[in-house]
Design goal:
The structure holds two protein chains of two kinds. By secondary structure, chain A is α/β, with parallel strands linked by helices. Chain A has a domain of 183 residues: Glucose-6-phosphate isomerase like protein, domain 1 (Rossmann fold), CATH 3.40.50. Helices cover 48% and strands 12% of the residues of chain A. Chain A contains ten helices and eight strands. A five-stranded parallel β-sheet of chain A has the order 5-4-6-7-8, sandwiched between helices. A three-stranded antiparallel β-sheet of chain A has the order 1-3-2. In chain A, strand 6, helix 9 and strand 7 form a beta-alpha-beta unit. In chain A, helix 5 packs parallel to helix 10 and helix 6 packs parallel to helix 10. The termini of chain A are far apart. Chain B is of the alpha+beta class. Chain B has three domains: 110 residues, no CATH class; 115 residues, Ribosomal Protein S5, domain 2, CATH 3.30.230.10; 54 residues, no CATH class. Chain B is built from 13 helices and five strands. Classes of the chains: A alpha/beta, B alpha+beta. Chains A and B meet through helix 1, helix 2, helix 6 and strand 5 of A and helix 3 of B.
């Protein structure tokens, strides 16, 4: 087919225009006829890419959505970590089934933490160190916009414990290296990072599978860490919560600025500056 | 008050104080003078600016992410113009890629991160993808998009692009004042210099046979017949001289002659050009191959349309095959020495003396004694005239 195509002479400018016109006419034709077809269209039905591009809000996330993403499928029975028992529903076909009745409230708790950190102007790092998770963490960080970071490839050991060598003296002096919250989409592959966070007293959130000890992170979310859909869903929920927190923070900043402007204005109209009152001992 | 407490504690240092520890924050009174020297907490440091800060390779990942974003934007723009995805026949019209990207060391200067081969490969693949969209936009007339992409990609292009393009072009074959070309060819150890001269067409003379006139045959008449056949075309043969010797004399073997005239046959120019070649080195195969390459190059210069046919037949290419060198411990380039006695059961003496010593007769004392007795008997018997054959 391609050989036949290559034997044809190259298209002229007019032929390109004809091709474009033909396609656009076809599109218009289909769009016009679609209104007489089914009410169920591509736009209003679920598509596989929606978990990544249309994240769910924390108050909208449902148990069935988690199960549809395969979040309840743990690892095999022999690999189950004994500390994971509280979050295990049972075993079926040799696989640990994770209890979604625990997952859902823990996910919402983690979302609250993310919102709180973002509302206080804290920095959040999304960590997902496989090729598929790299896109997920990048989109999540981009959604939060302010003070959000992502790591899609290896966390270099010493990022926090050897910061002087990693970033240089000038950066260490001027920039806050320690983040305020770190979210792990695959904690088992990032145990060095988790240890560094613990050493630096950084709160951590992580998707904990049945072969992982839930105590490695501060706010575990027991779910399947090998499913991309699950990671997209959970990271989406957390990023929406982060965005809400950032909005709160920006609102408060704006209010603070207004207030200080007002105070400055009032102070200006009320004569020379008096000695400020001593702060009370609280 | 603090000093009082301290005294009490020091008098009973081996015992813990009985009363509960007094809290010195929240409820204690602190005089205002104490606030004169309070150090305010340092102003909060600014947060890192790049979202990829914690990768410790921020400039590289930022570059990659921005290129990926450009690719997705360009793709959306092409989709809006109904140029993506392209059908096969349209895709074949796109000009081939001619990438001249910056090399690894030059790309490193764009960011502070070390440009390893894997990172370089990733960046180049993204640039090639953008280049493809640029070519689609250029060839289809989406000029604004093409200009934007060209501007974006110019930052990554090699500064020596023009120089590289110029140097890669083969010098065109020159024609002298008589319309002759001079080309060369090589094969194995032979090198040939080939002059290709167009055959002079014979002058149209009045004494020649009458010109053939266009035949106006009725439809019912047969297509070809002996009476209606037009004048045969005058064919002039190609004269081929090699080292001033005609082709048939220089190459008595038919295969070599066929090798030499193959370019003319494939191009259908047999009879149109004369060939004069000087060839040196090698043997018959090498020399005939060298002449063929030189001849093909000359024909491609005279008749450019024929170049495609000759290229497909690999006649424009210098055959890179050369005689492989002999290696040590092998009989020839590849042939190994034939294996002799691959399984040897050697005892200690054989190992010392070497294999092949086991054919020797082992002498022992008993055998030597027997031999002496027999020889003695022979001697005795031979002295008496009535000696018969010695019983052995």
């Amino acid at each position: 087919m391609s050989q036949m195509a290559s034997n044809r002479p190259p298209l002229t400018g007019e032929q390109w225009e004809d091709l474009q016109e033909e396609r656009s006419n076809f599109k218009l034709f289909m769009d016009a006829l679609s209104q007489y077809g089914s009410t169920q269209t591509r736009e209003n039905t679920f598509q596989p890419h929606h978990t990544l591009h249309r994240p769910v809000a924390p108050n909208q996330i449902t148990l069935s959505a988690l199960m549809a993403a395969g979040a309840h499928l743990g690892h095999s029975k022999s690999l189950m970590n004994p500390n994971f028992t509280p979050y295990a529903y049972g075993i079926r076909a040799g696989i640990t089934v994770i209890d979604m009745d625990h997952t859902l409230p823990l996910l919402r708790r983690a979302a609250k933490v993310v919102r709180g950190v973002a509302a206080n102007g804290g920095s959040i790092v999304f960590v997902g160190t496989t090729t598929e998770l790299a896109t997920v963490v990048r989109k999540s960080a981009e959604r939060v916009v302010e003070n959000a970071y992502h790591i899609g490839s290896k966390w270099l050991p010493g990022t926090l414990t050897n910061r002087l060598a990693m970033f240089g003296a000038k950066t260490v002096q001027n920039v806050q290296i320690t983040p305020d919250l770190v979210i792990f989409l695959n904690p088992l592959a990032n145990l060095h990072a988790i240890r560094e966070c613990a050493q630096n007293h950084i709160p951590t959130i992580g998707i904990i599978d049945s072969n992982v000890d839930p105590r490695v992170v501060m706010y575990p979310i027991p779910a399947n860490d090998e499913s991309i859909k699950t990671a997209e869903l959970i990271s989406g929920v957390l990023s929406v919560a982060g965005r809400e927190g950032v909005e709160i923070h920006l609102e408060e900043e704006a209010k603070r600025k207004e207030r200080s402007k007002y105070i400055a204005k009032m102070a200006g109209t009320q004569g020379p500056r008096r000695e400020p009152e001593r702060a009370s001992t609280r | 008050m603090f000093n009082v407490l301290r005294k009490q504690a020091s008098s009973r240092w081996w015992k813990l104080p009985a009363q509960p520890a007094v809290r010195h924050n929240s409820t204690a009174y602190v005089p205002p003078a104490a606030f004169q020297h309070v150090r305010r907490p340092p102003p909060p440091k600014e947060k890192p600016s790049s979202p990829t800060f914690y990768t410790s390779r921020a400039s590289y990942y930022d570059q990659v992410i921005s290129l990926e974003a450009c690719i997705s934007t360009a793709k959306q723009a092409l989709k809006a113009e109904n140029l993506y995805p392209l059908p096969d026949f349209a895709r074949a019209s796109i000009p081939p890629p001619q990438p001249f990207w910056k090399d690894q060391t030059s790309l490193m200067s764009l960011g502070s991160v070390k440009m390893t081969p894997s990172r370089y490969r990733r960046v180049i693949s993204l640039l090639n993808q953008l280049d493809e969209y640029k070519r689609i936009a250029e060839v289809s007339g989406a000029n604004e998009l093409a200009d934007n992409l060209t501007e974006l990609l110019s930052e990554f292009e090699n500064d020596n692009k023009a120089a590289i393009l110029a140097s890669s072009k083969r010098k065109p074959v020159q024609f002298d004042e008589y319309g002759r070309t001079y080309t060369s060819g090589k094969r194995k150890e032979s090198s040939a210099r080939v002059w290709v001269i167009p055959v002079q067409k014979p002058e149209e003379s009045t004494d020649a046979a009458p010109k053939s006139e266009p035949l106006n045959l009725p439809a019912s008449a047969p297509a070809i017949s002996a009476f209606n056949h037009p004048q045969p075309v005058q064919v002039t043969p190609s004269n081929i001289l090699i080292n001033n010797i005609p082709l048939n004399k220089y190459f008595p073997i038919a295969k070599d002659r066929e090798t030499v005239i193959r370019p003319l046959q494939l191009a259908g120019l047999f009879g149109a050009y004369n060939v004069f070649a000087l060839v040196r080195g090698g043997g018959t195969t090498g020399q005939s191959g060298a002449i063929a390459v030189g001849l093909a190059r000359g024909l491609a210069a005279h008749v450019p349309d024929v170049a495609d046919i000759l290229r497909k037949a690999k006649l424009l290419r210098r055959d890179p095959r050369m005689v492989e060198r002999k290696k040590t411990n092998l009989r020839k380039a590849r042939a190994a020495v034939s294996a002799i006695r691959t399984t040897l059961n050697l005892d200690a003496d054989e190992i010392r003396r070497g294999p092949g010593s086991s054919g020797r007769i082992y002498y022992n004392i008993a055998f030597i004694t027997q031999l002496i007795i027999i020889l003695a008997n022979c001697h005795e018997n031979s002295l008496s005239p009535k000696a018969g054959p010695v019983p052995f």
